[in-house]
UniProtKB/TrEMBL annotation:
Domain XdhC- CoxI: 11-78, 117-183
Coiled-coil residue spans: none
Protein name: XdhC/CoxI family protein
Gene3D superfamilies: NAD(P)-binding Rossmann-like Domain
């Protein structure tokens, strides 16, 4: 995605028209989620992907046509069992791809969007990708750029802009990209217009507690997965940037106090994952008591079976009930037979991914049915 953003910025600044193809909806075993983009530049180069290689050739040709005509197109790509080698997704999925021409005249708000993304500020693009019926107002391809407190651009009417801005802010708050439908004048009960809302929010956070070797490996893999990683430990001599160079932040503070402060400041949300690697009750019990009461995506704690049972007893003594205890991934990670800190980090990351997408953790060779699940994040349990 960084390559896509860099090239888009360069071409837009140069005033050269190019095409952006964006996945706006998926079904079945689609390989990439909505919001994934591919660019076709003025020099004929292609950056990014919409399907992992299945339909890129067809999308490339369509993108060149759209760049020339300036007319946006919504195209569906799929595959049937008796036509598996035609243009389509050999994985059996179906995707809708919206292809549009991008240049400073067509997207004057882009500089504002790029600046927000660069600075880690939340912003959303709401683009009209389909019109069910005549489109004399030319709504197809129009966009509204939505921030938490402002909106620029227009989709064609004040009422539609107001409705979309309100709903886009809801998606923005949860860091979720999605599709919305409205009537021509913004009524939510009608479906003449299909809007794709592409959300650019700050990356989700991974809070790693315990300045140990496992935390260094966890910081590396968390950064690789796109998390903003913070390592926190109460001992300043161990909580140093030198020991954790790949963490975005290293904090010396009592873990439970740091988490409470971050939560009160609104800097953790339902996308945040917490990995407690201290396996010391004076640190992890107050921290887990705090974490389990928050609507986080994942809370895991390292330790032996004996440590786990002792930890549960101590947490029950603090008043944590069984429903909240059921949210705790302890002992942390999947059974991969991991031994080294790096292998253990892979085990923990695998559990986080499986938890996010409701994966079983089983070997695919032992399963039947779809490989890819729908691209929707399961809401975190309420504390």
């Amino acid at each position: 995605m960084r390559d896509v953003e860099a090239e888009m910025h360069r071409w837009w600044r140069a005033g050269e028209p190019f095409a952006r193809a964006t996945v706006v909806a998926t079904w079945h075993s689609s390989p990439l989620p909505p919001g994934t983009s591919m660019l076709v530049g003025p020099d004929g180069s292609a950056v990014g992907s919409v399907s992992g290689g299945c339909v890129e050739g067809a999308v490339y040709e369509l993108a060149q046509e759209v760049t020339e005509s300036g007319t946006p197109v919504l195209e569906r790509y799929g595959v049937s069992d008796d036509d598996a080698f035609a243009v389509g997704l050999t994985c059996g999925g179906v995707i809708d791809v919206f292809v549009e021409r991008i240049d400073p005249a067509a997207f004057p708000e882009y500089d504002d969007v790029a600046a927000a993304v660069r600075d880690g500020e939340p912003v959303a693009e709401a683009i009209c990708v389909a019109v069910d019926g005549p489109d004399p107002a030319g709504r197809l391809g129009r966009r509204l750029v939505v921030r938490p407190d402002t909106a620029t651009g227009s989709l064609g009417s004040d009422r539609l802009d107001a409705a979309v801005a309100e709903d886009a802010r809801g998606l923005l708050a949860g860091g979720r990209t999605g599709t919305l439908r409205y009537g021509y004048d913004g009524t939510r009960t009608d479906e003449e217009l299909t809007l794709f809302v592409s959300v650019h929010a700050a990356p989700p956070r991974m809070l790693v507690f315990g300045a140990v070797d496992f935390a260094a490996a966890m910081a590396r893999i968390g950064t690789y997965l796109g998390y903003h990683v913070t390592v926190c430990d109460a001992r300043p001599v161990f909580a140093t940037k030198r020991r954790f160079p790949e963490a975005h932040e290293v904090v010396a503070d009592w873990p439970h106090r740091y988490l409470r402060t971050e939560a009160e400041a609104g800097r953790v949300d339902e996308r945040t994952v917490v990995c407690v690697l201290t396996h010391d009750p004076k640190f992890d019990v107050p921290l887990l008591e705090e974490a389990l009461r928050l609507p986080l995506a994942y809370v895991g704690a390292m330790g032996s079976r004996r440590t786990h049972e002792d930890r549960l007893r101590r947490l029950r003594d603090t008043g944590i009930d069984e429903d909240l205890l059921a949210r705790l991934a302890s002992p942390i990670g999947l059974d991969l037979g991991a031994r080294t800190p790096e292998e253990t980090a892979v085990s923990i990351a695998a559990e986080i991914i499986a938890d996010r997408w409701d994966g079983s953790g089983a070997r695919l060779t032992s399963l039947t049915g779809r490989i890819h699940r729908p691209h929707a994040v399961r809401p975190a349990a309420e504390g």
